[in-house]
Structures are given as structure tokens and as C-alpha cells.
Amino acid sequence: MPDLLRSEIEYRLAREAFEADGREIYDATIEGKCSIFKKVDYLSCFPH
């Protein structure tokens, strides 16, 4: 069984570390429920 609270804590730490380094993590999951990262369209991640 996934530990969702632990995952959320770890995702927030990852986001903070990336932002401190001037980078950003995007959530391109289809119908994902995570609210930690900025949502982007999955297909927009791949140039045509």
C-alpha cells in the first residue's frame, strides 16, 4: 500500500530543492491527482 503522506512530503522537498537551484518539476501525468507540481499537458512535453 503506498504511503501517500510520505510521498507528498518527499515531493515537496524535491520541489523546494529544484526551485532553490532555479529549476522546476512539472507533473505531466494523465488525470493525475498530485497537487505539488505545476500541471502540464503530457503531449506538450514532446516537440512535434
What is the N-to-C succession of helices and strands?
HEE
Overall pLDDT metric: 94
Low-confidence region ranges: none
How are the strands of the biggest sheet laid out side by side? 1-2
Number of domains: 1
In total, how many beta strands?
2
Discrete helix count: 1
Global morphology: flat
Rg result: 12 Å
Work out the helicity level. 25-40%
Q: What structural category arises from helix and sheet content? A: mainly alpha
The fraction of residues assigned to DSSP E strands is 5-15%
What is the makeup of the main sheet?
2 strands, parallel
Write up this protein.
This protein is mainly alpha-helical and 48 residues long. The protein has one domain (4-45). The protein contains 1 helix and 2 strands, in the order αββ. The protein has one helix at residues 4-20; strands at residues 26-27, 38-39. The protein has a two-stranded parallel sheet with strand order 1-2. The longest helix has 17 residues, at 4-20. It is flat. The model has no long low-confidence stretch (mean pLDDT 94).
